[in-house]
Write a structure and sequence with these properties.
With 211 residues, this protein is of the alpha/beta class. It is 12% helix and 15% strand. The chain has three helices and ten strands, in the order H-H-H-E-E-E-E-E-E-E-E-E-E. It has helices at residues 4-12, 17-20, 28-40, and strands spanning 68-70, 76-80, 102-104, 111-113, 126-128, 133-136, 149-151, 156-157, 173-175, 198-200. A seven-stranded mixed β-sheet has the order 1-2-3-5-7-9-10, with no helix packed on it. The protein has a three-stranded parallel β-sheet with strand order 4-6-8, with no helix packed on it. A hairpin with a 5-residue loop joins strand 1 (68-70) and strand 2. The longest helix is centred in the first third of the chain and has 13 residues, at 28-40.
């Protein structure tokens, strides 16, 4: 883990993490997004040594960070930090991970809204943010043509189930279970999704029938 003293020494020296991890072959947007996530989700003070991402005494490629997988060009494809006891919020800069295919942050204590910037990641296949404390509305994911799995169960989301989900044409799994503050009706157009095989909408404040 990076304790506060290590983080403060880095800041006082004027050295920022992207300088320590500088590699001209690595896209800087990837490193910035990870650093924002490192700070925003409380990993900076985490007790798990595996989350020692930005340790100035142990500099390595960010593609070697636990829970991170990259392609050969240094672009992050997978963020898998489920069940890591993370808190705080998901940073907007996650939208800078332009080749991201899988985002798995389930079973943590993350708060705040789902970043709208996720809707810019056209390569996303799977989003799993279930079992957190996320609030706010469900974003419009219709700009994600490849999305197959959207798991948002057991959060504190509000508003309605957006009709725009009916335009996520490759969706296979949709789990909104136990978001008790959701209201309105279940969009009937979900029945038009050819590949949808798994729909969970129990324990939420909706009316009407499952299509």
């Amino acid at each position: 883990m990076i304790r506060q003293s290590s983080q403060r020494s880095m800041e006082h020296s004027g050295t920022m993490p992207w300088e320590l991890y500088a590699d001209t072959s690595m896209p800087p947007s990837q490193l910035l997004a990870l650093y924002d996530m490192f700070l925003g989700t409380g990993m900076v003070n985490h007790s798990d040594d595996e989350l020692r991402w930005f340790d100035p005494l142990n500099v390595t490629s960010y593609c070697m960070f636990p829970g991170i997988q990259c392609d050969d060009d240094g672009y992050i494809l997978i963020v898998d930090l489920g069940g890591r006891r993370l808190g705080g919020t998901i940073p907007d800069s996650v939208g800078g991970l332009e080749r991201l295919m899988r985002l798995k942050l389930d079973d943590n204590q993350l708060q705040g809204p789902i970043p709208m910037s996720l809707t810019n990641l056209s390569n996303l296949l799977s989003i799993d943010l279930g079992r957190n404390l996320l609030s706010g509305v469900i974003p419009d994911f219709s700009s994600l043509p490849s999305l197959k799995r959207l798991i948002l169960n057991h959060n504190a989301l509000i508003g309605t189930i957006p009709f725009s989900l009916c335009n996520v044409t490759n969706l296979v799994s949709l789990d909104l279970e136990a978001n008790t503050r959701l209201e309105g009706t279940i969009p009937s157009c979900l029945s038009d999704l050819e590949y949808l095989r798994w729909l969970r909408v129990s324990e939420i404040g909706l009316v009407g029938n499952v299509p």
